């Protein structure tokens, strides 16, 4: 019996072990796969992030630009190697760019929480500059071997840029976004050209803290504090620091640390007929020292301001989708709200031909800072006014053409003119005469005007793929006259000799292919 009992217990144990092994080999029921679901709350293109109640949308574009007669992408040809109008001036400039943006939104009891991020990756052909000895270097702005001016943000010999990075919650916008001062079309009332004067810009965003109140029927009010550094600083020029370059006559920029952000208010009415916007900005000009140390003293701060009106008219009788966009601006010590950050019309040194006997070539100057001051003196604010606008006509759903223009005037007060042109207005005793001499100078006046006119045609053969051609003419109307002795510039091959002071003109052509996704 003991033997039989042992055999039975052994058999049972073997069966249990066998059944356990078979059970371990059976497949375990997998968790349900969480498929990405469409989020229809915020428009097309949004999806729920799996496992969350947050919706996300990815977007962007790939863009290729080719420009004729300029050394910069889409911002004109009025300074540096581009303005030299010689063998250092590029016949073409090329850029390839990929843009990536990420938009997330989450519904909460306080309203929608939104984050938005936009970055660009670019490769842009650059400039060759002279070294004064018969040799040249590629991309002289930066290191000798760094293409694309890659002094910062360099990636694989290209550049990376952060355009937008902001949070929106309960009416607040916090982070890098387009300034509330700017019109909805920023720099582009009907163009791709970046360099128009005549209004606020920051199409690449500016750090800000903004509250927007919605009153219904398309009416809103935005109150904002925004970072002024870089984007909204046109220069507080210390005329006591004279250079030998073309803009040395206007001293050197002498900013101190950031103290106060720019304060912006904007009222907007956005309805079916179009849009109206009134914007105001206050801008603190905070200079450092007259000399190298605290002991030299400093000028007092001076607040500047800017005001802008913008109007867009839709559904005009000339055709479906046709629009008229127009705006006007006035600034006093807040120049970047007119000569916006992508325009190079605020620091012009442009060369051309001449018929004046004894003159080698002609040259035109224009400088638009926020203020100027002399040693022991106070800041003298610069006044500007400007406008820009465009008419866009749709020939068909696939073709449209725009005509656009812009104009700006830059004005110095009598004290500033005396510092630059001397008490007698002939250059004697002023910074302009100190740099360029006064022998042939017949009119010394730093005021100037910029006029721009252009046309653009776009073809969209299929959805989200557009080819465009944009032609822009720019005219510099300067107030200097006579001749000067220009000290020369090795980087652009200009000799030190006599030049005629003269108005200048330039034309830029931008060809673009862009695929949005």
UniProtKB/TrEMBL annotation:
GO terms for molecular function: porin activity. It is a multi-pass membrane protein. Pfam families: Porin_2. Keywords: Cell outer membrane, Ion transport, Membrane, Porin, Signal, Transmembrane, Transmembrane beta strand, Transport. The keyword Secreted does not apply. It comes from the Bacteria. Residues 1-23 form the signal peptide. GO terms for cellular component: cell outer membrane; pore complex. GO terms for biological process: monoatomic ion transport. It is found in: Cell outer membrane. Forms passive diffusion pores that allow small molecular weight hydrophilic materials across the outer membrane. Belongs to the alphaproteobacteria porin family. Consists of 16-stranded beta-barrel sheets, with large surface-exposed loops, that form a transmembrane pore at the center of each barrel. The pore is partially ocluded by a peptide loop that folds into the pore lumen. This is Porin. It comes from Bradyrhizobium septentrionale.
